[in-house]
Specification:
Shape of chain A: globular
Radius of gyration of chain B: 18 Å
Low-confidence stretches of chain A: 235-251
Oligomer: heterodimer
Radius of gyration of chain A: 18 Å
Strand order of the largest sheet of chain A: 5-6-7-3-8-9
Strand content of chain B: under 5%
Helix content of chain B: over 70%
Low-confidence stretches of chain B: none
Structural class of chain B: mainly alpha
Distance between the termini of chain A: 26 Å
Helix content of chain A: 25-40%
Distance between the termini of chain B: 38 Å
Order of helices and strands of chain B: HHHHHHHHHHHHH
Chain lengths: ~250, ~270
Amino acid sequence: MIAVETDNLSLKLGDKTVLDDITCQVHEGEFVAVLGPNGAGKSVFLKLLLGILTPSSGHIRIWGRAPRDLPSEWIGYVPQAKTHDRSFPAIAVELVITGLYQRWRGWASAPEKLAARGALAQLGAEHLADRPIGILSGGELQRVYLARSLVRKPRLILLDEPVTGVDSVGENDFYEVLEAYRRQSGATIIMVTHDWEVASRHACHVLVLNRNLIGFGAPAEVLCSDCLKRAYGVSSTTHLSSCPRPEAHQH
Amino acid sequence: MGEILNLPFMQRALLAGVMIGFLASYLGVFVVQRGMGFLGNGLAHAAFGGVALGLLLGREPLIIAVPFTVAIALAITWVRQRTALTSDTVIGVFFAAAMALGVIFLSLKREYSADAFAYLFGSILSVTVTDIWVTGLVMIFTLACQPLWGRWAYATFDRDLALTDRVPVLLDDYILTVLIAVTVVVAVKVVGIVLISAFLVVPAAAARLMARRFAVMTVLSVIIGVASVIIGLWLSYQLDLPSGATIVLLQTAIFLTSLAVGRLAGAGSPGR
């Protein structure tokens, strides 16, 4: 069953073409990594899927519906930690409860608190429940965001560079939980990342963008030098040769 | 305290002041957390344009100032959402224009207007029964919008998360801006144009230093806002000082105390 489908998807902001003619299909239960250089339109692509932005032309269908017609609890969104406002007074469990209540809750009910603490416990983060989110490390914060996303039992999880600034142990734990949820629930995952190794290790498919579609397919096909040179440009040839070969990470 | 409650003008001032203290400190938590402190200042100066127009037309200034300031507030929000300009820049442009209009309107009146100065610095004696009714209506409307607190708070925390959960963020922004604008206008008589932004910012900032949850910050801000009006009015009467300035200095003292207590308790540092 097709979960996410884009058809000639384009977005212009003023005179600038941010995304041009993106066509792809993601099947239910797949893990898709979205790669591309800075400014390639990866986060914009996610925001189009979330219904935050409206395409200039083309279509998006998620289980046959336009993004804004989907029940919001079907989607779990994990934003970039660096965009997080650390000055906002909140404790971790309150952030997780927004995943259930879809509003900021002043005084949460006991069942809501219990469910939120359960989601944190699932990620080994129950001890963070009463901590102010402003003092959490990048890795801790991303676990809280993932708990917020999973507590609503989403059918589609969209992640925007979720492990940037997280140490390798935290990163492995993060992907383990994500993979376990996918196996158990059959959820579809679309994740923006800069990490080719993670893409080749976890993703069923890789979508390489640089405003237009450079490649979409299995990691072994798409993470080739030619595709990546087209995405990252000639100047990055040196960088490409120093990157681990995707084939080395196929299991 | 009992003595001053027998004076009709103090009764009006206290009633209006408590309602304004509530409104400004309740809405102020969003002003502070959204980094819109300059908005209160800008809207107060926009209100001056409206007041001056009312004086020029020989009408009740508040009746003209409310729609005038709301129009400026909506224009600020509209331009901010449709351009890459920062909030401060947009507010700066509109507040200067409204202030300039106010100066032109007053100059066209061609006679000295003591009323204009009452609005600039606030005058407890100038609070009328009409002002109480208008403030009461704003209070009722704000309380009716209380269910929006969770949506405003969510969008304040993270606009994209709120949009993802289908919160009508743009509509909510307009409602919040209109409420702030109307609160600023009705507060002008008691506090004065020069000091009203403090009513929006200082109680919420003091509460932020003491609270680690947004709901608690909101409650503390309202308590500080209302209590500072009651105590400040009493102090201003006893010490024969201007009411608006006394209240604002009291709020500042509470802020500084929160800062000191917060530092001692370890709260109030970034993220706490």
